[in-house]
Request: fold
Amino acid sequence: MKQVWTRKDLIGLEDLSREEIIHILTTAQAFEEALKTDPRKLPNYAGKVFINLFMEASTRTRVAFEMAALKLGASTTTITQSGSSLTKGETLRDTAQNLEALFADAIILRDRTSGAAKLLSEHVKVPVINAGDGAHEHPTQGLLDAYTLCKYFGQDLSGKHIAIVGDIRFSRVARSNIWCLKKLGASITLVGPTSLVPKEFEQFGVTVSHDLDALLEDLDAIMMLRIQKERQGTDNVPSLGEYRKLFGLTETRAKRLKPEARILHPGPMNRGVEIDSVVADSKQAVILEQVSHGVIVRMAVFHLCLSATQNTLSA
Reply:
């Protein structure tokens, strides 16, 4: 039987096949069922140590990786920029190679530089999992968002219309979702001001719109993104109030969605800007489900990458 997953690393979703994505989601589903019914059926990685190397702030992603490791019996250590020798001039490559020499079994990297995870993966033998690299990709977020949507619509998203609204230009989450959801068959519309959703994104096989109100009744799901203030200047949005008026998912706008439509947000949310509190807390919102699924999906990614690495070493 052909082995579907052979990669030691998860760097991005652009290069993954539909078959590989579905294999991750199916593995995650099996793990979720095992967690609920019999955790003894889960693979046991006792004695393994996973290193979270986080050069940017994080709550959900970092803790979800930690929880995923713990659920599999592994241990974790988290290193931040301020707590590492990077502040003394050491390169990221040297840091990672030293961690490998200290018997790390996997490295999870979040870095502000696009391409950092790919570079790292070329210099260590252990799995490298990209937890977000600049504005490039955030593959596990894309996978957990897809997993959440597939819970409601099935793994074939053909015929489903999904809008991603907000700061697309600077969003690694948007890019990973584009690659992932398109491969599952969804039609994607990117929505926001021209400064944050340029027409150039159409080259990715998506539709670009600057009019949220024209789309609402047709959507099967809508994902709201925050303004990435840390990755841009101050001239892309006139004011947060004006932005909310044009592109915020207000209660009035949410009422125009189909009853079965789902509302997503990768977090952190800026309530009252891109999404109103009453909408974020509504029955159509699956935001906390996304958070929980982040643990399940990352468990699957750990298992697949470690298994591929072991198979390579055994060959």
